[in-house]
Amino acid sequence: MNNQTKRPNPKFTLEFKQDAVKLVTEKGYTHQQAADSLGISLSALGRWTRAERGSANPTGSKTATLNLADQAELLRLRKENEQLRMEREILKKAAVFFAKEVE
After folding, report:
1. How far is residue 23's CA from residue 48's CA, in Å, rounded to a whole number?
2. How many helices (H) and strands (E) does the chain have?
3. Does residue 67 contact residue 57 with C-beta atoms inside 8 Å?
């Protein structure tokens, strides 16, 4: 498949992902039934389900598994951190610029 025919990955909200997982975990849907009824891929639903179960059932492995809410929070914080770093660099440059003007 080349880049021209490749479909972009849809973006789903955290609430949508959690509700989709609840269909499987609480309502008794099979993964296939839930994926078909929501119009999403079976693999995406499987990833979301594993992500939610990963935090509830720690296996003792060295790598911690984050649930969907934690993943979303981590992504938000990383973006915010990057923004703050950029702003800090701009302020540093401005401070140097204005310090030279004063002299």
Report:
1. 12
2. 4, 0
3. no
Place of tokens 């140097």: 96
pLDDT tens string 32-90: 999 999 999 999 999 999 988 875 555 554 455 678 888 889 999 999 999 999 999 99
For residue range 1-26, what is the model confidence (pLDDT) as tens digits?
A: 555 677 777 888 888 998 999 999 99
Instruction: Please name the residue that has the structure tokens 């701009």.
Output: 90
Q: Are 49 and 25 in contact (CB under 8 A)?
A: yes
Distance (Å, rounded) from C-alpha 15 to C-alpha 36?
A: 18
Q: How far apart are CA 46 and CA 48, in angstroms?
A: 5
* Rounded-to-integer distance, Cα 5 and Cα 2, Å: 6
What is the pTM (predicted TM-score) of this model? 0.55
